[in-house]
Amino acid sequence: MHSSTRGGAGGKADRNPATGLKRIFYSDNGSTAVEVAIKLALQYWKNLGQRRDTFITLRNAYHGDTVGAMSASEDSVFTRAFAPLLFPVMRVDGLEDLEHRLRESGESVAAVLIEPMLQGAGGMVIWPPEFVAGVRRLCDSHGTLMIADEVLTGFGRTGRMFACEHALVTPDIICLSKALTGGYLPLGATATTQAVYDAFLSEDHGKTFFHGHSYTANPLACAVALASLDLFRDAAVLARVRNLEAQLRLGLEPLRELPHVADVRVIGGVGVVELKGDGYLDQMGTRLAEAFLARGLLLRPLGNVVYFMPPYVITEEETDWALQQISEVVGTLP
Predict the structure, then answer these.
(1) ∠ CA 207-67-21, rounded to 5°
(2) 90-103 residue pLDDT tens
(3) Which pTM value belongs to this model?
């Protein structure tokens, strides 16, 4: 991954691939990894003597269930009950919208927070690499931070070790969890550049990052994470994901021709069939889940969005079987 580090607002981007995300803050899960990133970005500017307290996020974003992560997520049924606790953010639909917001309010923006390449709970929406690269470019040109929430996409899920690699960029802050431990134990990590880290180095205790969790960098969880990372090094995991991607495309693409299918999307080890419906709260999801379970396949559709995101150890035969079940269930819908 290439990197972008700054010694303050508006500094020149450093594209030296030898530098990058050198400093890591551990937490417990994906939501807290995002919470740490938001707090880091806000205090970074405060420590530099600048007031930047606005965050820009994507429409349909989902970043977790703690207060900061909910604030950065889309206003939805997930967050509405907690509205009095949440802080406002700017939400954008694409690069043109983002550029307009940064041109208008860039000096108050602490960071732009995105799910690179794949938005998860918001509907399994796939973005092109050019979008991710454009976010990096606009953050650089307006001197603000880029945060990548790779809790879902990190560690090979999109076909690259990290989704930002599709666009050959490195964010200023990255949020990681899930596959970091293979799902066996809870562990989150928020990694950042040396430039961000340096803003907290001071004899002034007011510049300290006062944040911590009871099980931060839990030794057992870290040992599991190391074992998981060893598998990436020794077991050609990314090659397996590329093979899985080809298999998903072959198995799901024919469903595009069905009249009740709105779209078929595949990226890395994620296959998506979006049905015509009413979004996350569409009761179709419950009926589909029951139909899949009756066939021995455990899936949890996001309303009208059926997604298949298997573990990397799944065999080609098991994948074929699962795709057959998906095709038959979706094919029998009225």
Answers:
(1) 50
(2) 999 999 999 999 99
(3) 0.93
